[in-house]
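Why this split exists: single-chain examples teach little about how molecules sit against one another. For that reason, every record in the complexes split bundles all components of an assembly together and asks for one structure covering all of them. Below is a record exactly as it appears in the raw files.
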Amino acid sequence: MAIMPVTDSMFLLAESREHPMHVGGLQLFELPDGAGPDYVSELHRELVRAADVRPLFRRRPMNPVSSLGQLAWTNDDDLDLEYHVRLSALPRPGRVRELLELTSRLHGSLLDRHRPLWEYTLIEGLERNRFATYSKVHHALLDGVSALRLLQTSLSEDPNERDMRPIWSPRVRTGVSAGRVDGDDGGSPLAGLRAAANVVRDLAGLAPTAVKVINDAFREQSSMLAFKAPKSMFNVPITGARRFAAQDWPLDRIRAVRKAVGGGSTVNDVMLAMCSGALRRYLIELDALPDKPLVAAIPMSLRADSTGGDMSGNAVGIILCNLATDVDDPAARLAEIMTSMRKGKQVYHGMSQLQITALSAIPMVPLALATIPGAVRITPPAFNVLISNVPGPRNPLYWNGARMTGVYPLSIPYEGQALNITVTSYAGDLEFGLTGCRRSVPHLQRLLTHLDDALAELEKALIG
Amino acid sequence: MAIMPVTDSMFLLAESREHPMHVGGLQLFELPDGAGPDYVSELHRELVRAADVRPLFRRRPMNPVSSLGQLAWTNDDDLDLEYHVRLSALPRPGRVRELLELTSRLHGSLLDRHRPLWEYTLIEGLERNRFATYSKVHHALLDGVSALRLLQTSLSEDPNERDMRPIWSPRVRTGVSAGRVDGDDGGSPLAGLRAAANVVRDLAGLAPTAVKVINDAFREQSSMLAFKAPKSMFNVPITGARRFAAQDWPLDRIRAVRKAVGGGSTVNDVMLAMCSGALRRYLIELDALPDKPLVAAIPMSLRADSTGGDMSGNAVGIILCNLATDVDDPAARLAEIMTSMRKGKQVYHGMSQLQITALSAIPMVPLALATIPGAVRITPPAFNVLISNVPGPRNPLYWNGARMTGVYPLSIPYEGQALNITVTSYAGDLEFGLTGCRRSVPHLQRLLTHLDDALAELEKALIG
């Protein structure tokens, strides 16, 4: 038995049918040369046969039924690997559309607390000679960035390497240059979420007066926006069903836009402009575009950033960014986003790492508090949508000779935050994963078309 | 808005992650002549396109999050048919084994209370030119027998009939001779469960002294067994994951055994002897066979039964049957079961329908009370396993030309009742559906082999 830190247990205590608290990853692979029609089911049989599972993937809540029992971890001595490692298939014609439909469904169901809090599904029947894997792990076990990293560490840059182990194996290789092992996520742009959780851990025991202090400090930070985040269709109570959409775009296209606009712009700025353009189109189509611009919360690594400076170590800040969704012209929209991001980073200038962490945690507090039943809610919404950008591996990765062609993160919509956009990079592409509440964010798939249009619009306006 | 009867809401209030309260049905179909490879996906597209849905399949709990809101039904005005009607596929090689694996998983996840409480999944990729459907409906909406009946009413005895509607359509045909529409389940052998629920409705407001009266009355009925149901591995707390197994055997084989044994024996007796033999083998294999014989609770229609008699109307009784699992000889075991069933029926002899209903409800009270959180629990277990036999249609049924080759019921394991066996008949076969808690009833599939062996054993002993 191990006492569970509050940062783990809060995600268990807050979980409900409406608020599953797990993250996911969708990976696409090419079938290796010479793979027969039973390649995937044979792979599944092999994976289920291997009985060695690392401790992280063996632990489960001590007493899953009572709240108190959720405050301690125990080991599952009777691990039923066939339960965790599943084999599924896509209905014909096996397009990405069918894959996303299945993934949405898998991401919308709760993990079984009587067992270690993870599932891994091999998916066969994907057209163009591919297969996919969907991994699901509870936030109490691993946060999204650590989970994504862990997935990558089990892959190899060498297409000829064989006998590679799955992520739950204690003998998994960790030979990827960009990869880090779980726990060591200090430098990740999303570590801010962990930091926020740590702040909330200390907050949880505080009196309401302390929450007022946090409120005031938050108002100070958001004052740089000169406006409040408007109410939007994304800032509503949510239900448990999920819709997931994913697509990638070549980094070269995004870099070309960045180059054309110049002025210290980043790939992240162009990514945000794509999101902004897509959200604007989506909201106009549903006649739900607020007059005021949407505000995004963006966890960012501030280490080697253009703010330059006196910061040492792995400083991570949460930036509140004006997405300029009220602006029609794509170039003007991108310019406003760049300005807002620059101002947001400047707030952190000259601060110590500890100060940055504390300040960054503030806009995340409502989100984190929302995971504690009955906790204080801060209104109006501090931001409208959470957009994260997690750098991924630059080179193509392989799993026992099968080339990974794409990897897409699935995240957690929270109460009042019905849409999450998480982006990662991989082998020359920028890969978008959009996770939404199926009821509050209808026709989520349309955002993919809108993202595509938004990029084309930027290219037309800036490159010609 | 419609106030929900307690018999509906108790299943919503009692539901938890460990105790999903839905029933299911698995149907297997032959692809009709000339069906192309996209037959099932085209069927799915058609079903999703049809927007007319009968009121029963439109209603959902008024306020799914608070307990109070679960006491009223409301209509879903924004029904998302694509959510309810799903298309899935089996991984290769698409045997019944893969089908049961998928069905187990589908049956183990909770329905979304923000939507009407049903799901319908078309399953393609089943070998030997077949497809399957899995239907899932909350017990608060329909009980198992009504759900099974409703499924059948949407089918036709005419292989040439086309333009048939799905069960949720208000224009569904009800042209099957054996079929009855939902609600009208008075004559069903499982109506006793409804009756028990009605008794519990009245019980729910009673003082503990009243529960004592029920206890005493129950002891009186079970005294005819001359022993108490032993503690067994099935009478434990359960988890939410399910395992489902299903198989059919020709009624002719069962009738031949019945004929050989003579003495007023019924198909139901032989079915129970199969269950008994299978449970005995299963428990011996796990070194968990109690010294005392297992007791089964069997809801039975007493109307046209051998007890003869003075009963009018649709009387339904719950029989507590000694399964004689302590007896090695299959013929002796069957004889003991027959004796126990005869004695059980005699208890009801000369009673009014109301008395029968009240008395029958008694052994179900612990089960029904177990669905009310914090309600009194009566120990030791009144019985070890619930076995139901629901008569089905005699003639082959078709759905738009696709012949149904099998239909298997999926039921609800309760706290302390980790295994449920429900049997139905269809077109010359007896079809077994076994639903168990995945953790408490390991290797559930082995019961199918044991059932097969148990039948062979009876044939050998009695026919030679």
